[in-house]
């Protein structure tokens, strides 16, 4: 192809490179110039134009895009007509898009004139959704280049299946076993069923009535066999406690029911603790704790392939690591039928969990009377509550809410100029629960968790709080995070928003720690390097031993 300034005398059959506007007439970019077009240009005072002239063997852009599209067509794909060197490929039914990345890469690397862009491999698509676009970059492609591209596309299809295909979701029957342990709330059980039902129905499947049994291997195995007799084509186990080993209760039940374990764990987060097995030819999976959440996680990737009729091997799972960091990514609905109507995100979609911090600073310091321990200054003249709040502000927790009560004005004055929200506990004299509830009531609705800090623990530094935030993952079962030192439990503690209603019902001079025993399966402990998380200073003798406070109390 020859490109550049072209005298009008030589322009017949050339392709106009740029739109030309004249009085009463517009010749658009891409126009193939005929005698009438050339006459109009001459009448408009043009002696030459920028154009592309095809050489022998060149294939015009639309014909080239059309031929490459035909070579790439696979099952359940439809295509648009060629226009401006482009052909779009669409899904003909809801299903899973399967792409041969190596074949696409080879064609894209062949010559700059040909490009193919696709959705990600193994992504669910809706009927009529665009899955790929072919674009010819210049106005023509050398015929030899196009022939090689066509041959590569067809050869790839013959050797390893089509380069692009949509695998339709099959209407499978799914059996779910829910295991129970004492203290597990009914709402949690019901929620797990509804979330699973949503996943299954989104993939065109049907969820059989769930089996609820004790968290014991024999009971689970019996339930699996009952579901098989009911026609289950996929078996799922949602444990009351997360699976931690391929010999744990859930996987052992699959083996006891006559099956085998194929793989434990996956490089997808959330979703690490999944266990894949089978009983005869029926996939049997022990779900990770995050499967109780409707958010995208590793179980979605596995179920999508199963419903699309694809085998999921250990090698397949181990190959999911690139792109497997799903945590905190806003995603479109499955199977993305509503995606076209959704507004584009204004910022990058990845975000951290929003965890707030409460600093409880309302108490009367009875054990240190007549001093208010929160206002006792350290050896540099900084009040204790100021040190505590500065440490919290050095962490990623936001917003920071400070609960005041006793000597409210003095406490607020000590925190002048700091970016905190004050919440006053009018009934602070009733005890710790009153301060706690005042602070919780001041939290923004969008926070996903709250770390509760005590105003008399000035040694807890910002990085320690950040370690708690890093461990926080309600979908994986880490909904309550507490620090420890040499096995002893300390403060501050981080709580998921789901526990706020229970915390708001506490009365008396107690905090929320007693809820830990009730929700033991949701607790994660984070071991710290020193004992700062164990050290509060509520007496004069204790404060004398606090680093930096040696001269504070005489």
Automatic annotation (TrEMBL):
Organism: Siccirubricoccus soli
Pfam families associated with the record: NTP_transf_3
Name of this protein: Molybdopterin-binding/glycosyltransferase family 2 protein
Keyword Secreted: no
The keyword Repressor appears for this protein: no
Record-linked InterPro entries: Bifunc_Mopterin-bd (IPR012184), MoaB/Mog-like_dom_sf (IPR036425), MobA-like_NTP_Trfase (IPR025877), Nucleotide-diphossugar_trans (IPR029044)
Keywords: Magnesium
Domain MobA-like NTP transferase: 357-521
């Amino acid at each position: 192809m020859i490109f550049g300034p072209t005298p009008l005398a030589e322009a017949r059959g050339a392709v106009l490179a740029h739109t030309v506007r004249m009085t009463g007439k517009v010749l658009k970019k891409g126009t193939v110039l005929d005698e009438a077009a050339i006459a109009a240009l001459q009448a408009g005072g043009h002696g030459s134009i920028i154009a592309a002239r095809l050489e022998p063997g060149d294939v015009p852009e639309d014909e080239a895009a059309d031929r490459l599209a035909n070579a790439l067509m696979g099952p359940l794909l439809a295509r648009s007509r060629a226009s401006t060197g482009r052909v779009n490929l669409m899904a003909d039914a809801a299903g899973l898009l399967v792409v041969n990345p190596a074949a696409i890469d080879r064609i894209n690397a062949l010559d700059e004139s040909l490009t193919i862009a696709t959705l990600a491999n193994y992504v669910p698509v809706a009927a009529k959704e665009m899955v790929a676009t072919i674009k010819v970059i210049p106005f023509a492609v050398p015929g030899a280049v196009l022939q090689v591209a066509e041959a590569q596309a067809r050869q790839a299809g013959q050797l390893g299946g089509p380069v692009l295909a949509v695998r339709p979701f099959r209407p499978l029957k799914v059996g779910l076993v829910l295991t129970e342990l004492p203290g597990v709330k009914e709402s949690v059980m019901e929620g797990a069923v509804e979330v699973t039902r949503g996943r299954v129905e989104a993939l065109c499947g049907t969820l059989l009535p769930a089996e609820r049994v004790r968290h014991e291997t024999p009971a689970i195995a019996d339930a699996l066999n009952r579901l098989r007799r009911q026609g289950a084509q996929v078996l799922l186990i949602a444990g009351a406690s997360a699976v931690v080993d391929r010999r744990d209760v859930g996987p052992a039940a699959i083996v006891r029911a006559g099956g085998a374990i194929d793989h434990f764990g996956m490089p997808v987060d959330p979703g690490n603790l999944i266990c894949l097995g089978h009983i005869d030819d029926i996939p049997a999976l022990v779900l990770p704790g995050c499967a109780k959440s409707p958010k995208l996680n590793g179980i979605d990737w596995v179920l999508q392939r199963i419903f699309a009729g694809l085998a999921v091997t250990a090698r397949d799972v181990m190959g999911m690591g690139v792109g497997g960091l799903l945590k905190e990514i806003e995603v479109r609905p499955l199977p993305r039928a509503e995606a076209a109507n959704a507004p584009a995100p204004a910022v990058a979609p990845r975000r951290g969990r929003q965890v707030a911090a409460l600093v409880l600073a309302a108490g009367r310091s009875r054990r240190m009377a007549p001093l208010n321990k929160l206002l006792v200054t350290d050896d540099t003249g900084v009040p204790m509550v100021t040190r505590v709040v500065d440490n919290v502000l050095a962490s990623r927790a936001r917003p920071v809410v400070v609960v005041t009560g006793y000597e409210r004005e003095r406490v607020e004055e000590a925190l002048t100029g700091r970016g905190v929200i004050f919440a006053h506990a009018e009934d602070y004299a009733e005890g710790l629960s009153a301060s706690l509830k005042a602070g919780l009531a001041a939290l923004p609705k969008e926070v996903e968790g709250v770390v509760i800090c005590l105003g008399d623990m000035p040694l807890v530094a910002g990085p320690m709080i950040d370690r708690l935030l890093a461990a926080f993952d309600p979908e994986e079962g880490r909904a309550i995070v507490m620090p420890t030192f040499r096995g002893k439990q300390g403060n501050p503690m981080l709580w998921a928003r789901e526990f706020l209603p229970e915390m708001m019902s506490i009365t008396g001079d107690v905090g929320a720690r007693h809820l830990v025993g009730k929700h033991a399966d949701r607790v994660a402990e984070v071991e710290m390097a020193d004992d700062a998380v164990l050290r509060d200073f509520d007496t004069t003798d204790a404060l004398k031993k606090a680093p930096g406070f040696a001269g504070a109390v005489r």
